[in-house]
Amino acid sequence: MTPERVLQLLDALEPLDVWVDGGWGVDALVGRQTRPHGDLDLGVVRPQLDQVVEVLEGLGYAVTDARFVQVTVQLAHAAEGHRVDLHPSTPVAGGGTEQLDFDGNTYLIPPAVEGRIGGRLVRCMPTSAQLRAHQGYQLRPVDLHDMQLLEQLGSG
Asked: Is 84 helix (H, G, I), strand (E, B) or coil?
């Protein structure tokens, strides 16, 4: 997935409360693309999940996996061959959201911070939450790459 495509998707979702996380979120925090990406991970407030899915379906995406809808909803674009993974979370008083992991635990995601994709400011998951999101599963080489970058950024 190209930076241009990421920005197109974010523009289409503009009125909704979404933020970039996952690999593109790490690259946004770094301020440049550091590796190829086959998908885009987006955080979304749970009350707007259906609206986000509807917008993406209008752009040619189809839900491919909603078995764990409390944790993630995966969509794919058949013609373009890439995915969007949505990570719903519940807004909490004082800002931020609470996200459920695959083990049934919840963790706080602080309010989104600014990052850059393709030279443009975007909302993204803070470093501390990105570090937490990379726990609880077997890390792949791309995850290890992302973790190294996150550790260099610190816990901000």
From this structure: strand
Q: What is the pTM for the complete model shown?
A: 0.91
Q: What is the CATH number of the domain that holds 111?
A: 3.30.460.40
Total residues found in the chain within this entry:
156
Beta strands in the chain (DSSP E): 18-21, 39-45, 61-65, 73-77, 82-91, 97-100, 106-109, 113-117, 120-124
Q: How many whole angstroms separate alpha carbon 137 and alpha carbon 147? A: 13
pLDDT tens digit sequence for 82-127: 999 999 999 999 899 998 877 888 889 999 999 999 999 999 999 9
Residues spanned by the domain of 12:
3-153
